[in-house]
Specification:
There is one protein chain. The chain is built from three helices and two strands. Strands 1-2 form a two-stranded antiparallel sheet. Strand 1 and strand 2 form a beta hairpin. It is elongated, with a radius of gyration of 16 Å. The mean pLDDT is 90.
Amino acid sequence: MEILKTRAFSEAVDSDWDLAGQLGISAIPTFVLDHWAVVGAQSYEVLEKFLLDHMVKRK
């Protein structure tokens, strides 16, 4: 809890918030691939379709 009190990582956190804003991310989780995004908790099937639609190959 000391880290929260001292804000030891505030610069890194603020930087991440800035980047998220630039990318248009406003919710967690957000999955981003090639400027496309899936926002919010999703089922396995939705995430699988997202990846396959963007040519990510299965292992």
